Amino acid sequence: MNLKLEFVRRIVKIIFIVLLTFFYGCATQPQQKETQRNNLAFLYNPSSTPLHPEFNVYHETSTRSRLYIKLFPVELIFNQTNPDGTYQGKLRINYELRELIDGKESELVSDSTTADFTLRMEEVKNIFVANLPLRTREGSKYTLKVNTTDLLRRKGTTNFVHIDRTTVNTAQNYQVITASTGYPSFDRVFHPSEVFYVKYNRRGPDSVYVKYYENDFPMPRPPITNLSSPRPDFIPDSIFAYPYSDTINYMLRREGMFHLQVDPKQAGGLSLFNFGENYPRVASTKDMVGPLVYLTNSQEFNELVNQTNLKLAVDNFWLQAGGNSQTARELIRVYYNRVFFANYFFTSYKEGWKTDRGMMFIVYGPPNILTKKGNTEIWVYYRKKSREPLQFTFSRHDNPYTENDFHLERNFVNSLWSQAVTEWRSGKIFSTESN
Q1: Domain boundaries, the chain
Q2: What is the C-alpha separation between 181 and 129, in angstroms, rounded?
Q3: Which residue, 107, 183, 200, 325, is most buried by CB atoms nearer than 10 A?
Q4: Of 428, 228, 255, residue with least CA distance to 334
Q5: Rounded distance, CA 218 to CA 306, Å?
Q6: What is the pTM (predicted TM-score) of this model?
Q7: What is the pLDDT of residues 280-316, one digit of tens each?
Q8: Is CATH 2.60.40.10 correct for 33-165?
């Protein structure tokens, strides 16, 4: 009798577990599908998308802004299946503009449009620049979602642009024109020899004031501490002024940040940067040394940077980590490729590799899942040996010098940081999926 009762209990327990698993699966599957559907990890993985457009926003009037889009025709498909029989490409740009209210996106669409462009191969050169109007209003912030599609290939990409109209002093009230092309600049980082001029959207300023900051901003703290990364005091190293004219040519001859304002008493302005001749590439020993701060302790790093033969010191670091020259070369290739993309994606008021997101990208690699919610980004890494993924949240901070200042929220327990550093220094490219 006891055996029969125990058998019945086991059967009931098994049925209960099966039912629980079934209902749990039904409850979580939609959430998992929703997460995958909204996965934006391709934003930080250039090889996953065929198009790599760049964007610039300029506030023309109190109610209108303009979106500039730059594309590379070499990334488009051209064919002759058209009435003219000439090589043509077909491009579609669609956007949705949503206001940010208390850091969250409104459910209402403030503006949207779809525009098609025909590119004729004999007319386009190395780049194609288009522009579209945006309905915006002063005093607001927005998130602009832009879908760019190659209609012949039937593939495209999605990008997000932060728009700030809170005051007439924010950076998008200024437009930087590249002197060599006459096009708006799609980057705020300039090499020492590049020439440009600056236009302001309001009439009346007599002077433009420039605050210069040397490039000595602090490094981020690793995620093993709950202390946030230090913020600079932003005290300028020098201040100078020029008569305002939208035809004056500028060059950034010194490395550092140049903050331009028409009213120095008001917060905001346009920040332009010179991070050296190679930036964002890693092309010299000097470029290779700095990012090693993430794989060394403070004493090791200080000894490294003070070596007489810096190239030999860097080579020896990677040879010791890899154990042989072949492994060392692979470690160098992957590590500094990540440094390049950290510079490309995360440059703020300092080099991208020096930011919280840049630090995590270099050591952990691109996230498996990326979601955006208003002013936050959530990065998720799969873990093969754990049911719980590794998750990091970055929040955008208001910063008069950049719209790209994201800080790591340090409210997690296990970041695997120490293990990641150990694996890099043991000749292994760290991957959360192997842990």
Answers
A1: 33-165, 285-434
A2: 11
A3: 200
A4: 428
A5: 19
A6: 0.88
A7: 999 999 999 999 999 999 999 999 999 999 999 999 9
A8: yes
